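Posting for a labmate who doesn't have an account.
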Amino acid sequence: MNASAPADEPTAPRRSPEAPEPREPRWLTDDEQCIWRSYLHATTLLEDHLDRQLQRDAGMPHIYYGLLVGLAESPDGRLRMTELAMQAKITRSRLSHAVARLEKNGWVRREDCPSDKRGQFAVLTDAGYEVLRRTAPGHVAAVRQAVFERLTPEQQKSLGEIMQIVAEGLQPDGAGADLPWLR
């Protein structure tokens, strides 16, 4: 407790005279708020829609499907775990949990990295390729129905450009960046 303040009055931190006054946040305009909420609603509903389709057709959430696709598209169906986390934009802990579940299903296996004792590879198994082969047509239909069939070609192009700009802004190149796959 500050000795100069009465016991019943809280003390506020002292600001130096040269410190700028705290600024009021730059609140969203009504139009920006509407856009932001539309984005949140759409992305939440889209993720739920895709999760339900994949749970129904393959017994897996959307994130697991994305991991299997990432492995299927990589040379020899294998990626270092750190690369797979970066591709999926998830933490290493979340990836480790997901890969453990995929291993339990027989869709992925882990292999030690011969050049790095701490590194591991995730490798897509034949059963993993098979579940992708069976599930991909329904998943593509769900994506097409939920997104692409609702947009004109111009809107599709704009959406892609906008999302690229947002993603690039959230992935700084510098050291010390706080990105999921680095945690």
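Reply:
Got it, the structure tokens are right above this. The helical segments are 30-58, 62-72, 81-88, 92-104, 126-146, 153-169.
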